[in-house]
Amino acid sequence: MKALVTVEGRTAAVQEIPKPTPAEGEILVRVHYAAQNPTDWKTVPHRPAGRIVGCDFAGTVADPNGSSWREGQRVAGFVYGTMAEPLRGAYAEYLVAGSSFVWAVPDSVSFQDASTIALPFATAMQAMFQRLGLPEPSKPATSAFPVLINGGASSVGLYAVQLAKLAGLHVIATGSKQNHDLLTSLGADVVVDYKDAAWPEKVRELSHDKLQHAFDCISEKETTAAVSRALSSTKGGHIVCILPRKTSELPEGLTKVKVESTIVYTVFGDALNLGEDAFENWGGPTPQDRKLWEKYLSILPEYVKSGKIKPNPTKEIGGLEAILKGFELQQQGKVRAEKLIYKIA
Ligand SMILES: NC(=O)c1ccc[n+]([C@@H]2O[C@H](COP(=O)([O-])OP(=O)(O)OC[C@H]3O[C@@H](n4cnc5c(N)ncnc54)[C@H](OP(=O)(O)O)[C@@H]3O)[C@@H](O)[C@H]2O)c1
């Protein structure tokens, strides 16, 4: 099969490689569409040659391998691309995934749309429900307390806004002016332009100094510092980050603010320690993270079919050969409020 594989020189190239074989508990998927995440290009330089790149996919079951899936059934999900044991990677004509880590794509949902969901949705789900401890949509908040989604127009942010709304919260999102209508249409109650230097003070005012929960979908040192200024001046609060930020990086004097980092790959339940920058949930096995993801994978078909969760807007820019160009576009900050997707088969 053809796949985008890491090669010498800290880059990747399309190569002909053997089709993977599913082991017990795994299925083989024929990939129709794959979607790009920053993790794809961030990991490439750190992996040895021969690893298959890519995480998010949608396709059909090629070998159910004794699972309850049927051959030809439409599925989507994400894998930990560039991993070797077990072999994982979505920028390939076929991939192997754990049989409990895919969701059934309803007929009314295109492969293009379905491919955009799993990784950023799982990231938002884990950050908000497991780490921030926000109420889940199945048991929404009884009174709509405020939550801040910084970087609401990012891929993760667009799902975070929708999940926070389903959870009955008062959703405050940041985004550039051109994305305000999109964010409002997805459920943001208030949208603030982060390009205004005083945006944190504006959020503090809009939340009547009551904001105690924030999800920083950008998680650069300066964005997390800005988010900390939006939290309640008397009570402080909890900021969850998806890059390895730390409380100690905050401006001095914020004694009541806690920063916590989280990485989505723990949803597969396996121990993770690649010696890279430390995330707080990086380490031993994570059965609770796996359980939560499996729960949401079973809810996703209804969420997407009913429109409760809308996929990211998509831009299709080619097939496997176009992916390195897509990496460049995202590195240059040219992918905004949309997902680059690739037609694989
Ligand atoms: N820890 C994890 O498990 C995990 C999982 C997924 C992603 N991530 C990381 O999270 C980050 C976001 O990934 P993604 O795929 O969601 O990103 P993305 O879709 O590429 O994000 C692009 C968007 O970010 C917004 N943005 C950029 N700078 C901003 C700022 N200073 N303040 C607010 N918004 C800003 C822009 O919004 P406007 O268009 O409105 O300007 C833009 O549309 C990446 O660093 C990625 O590696 C981590």
Automatic annotation (TrEMBL):
The keyword Hydrolase belongs to this UniProt entry's keyword annotation: no
Domain Enoyl reductase (ER): from-to ranges: 9-342
Keywords: Oxidoreductase
Pfam families: ADH_N, ADH_zinc_N
Record-linked Gene3D superfamilies: Medium-chain alcohol dehydrogenases, catalytic domain, NAD(P)-binding Rossmann-like Domain
UniProt cross-references to InterPro entries, sorted A to Z: ADH-like_C (IPR013149), ADH-like_N (IPR013154), ER (IPR020843), GroES-like_sf (IPR011032), NAD(P)-bd_dom_sf (IPR036291), Trans-enoyl_RdTase-like (IPR047122)
Family the UniProt entry places it in: Belongs to the zinc-containing alcohol dehydrogenase family.
Protein name: Enoyl reductase (ER) domain-containing protein
Source organism of the structure: Xylaria hypoxylon
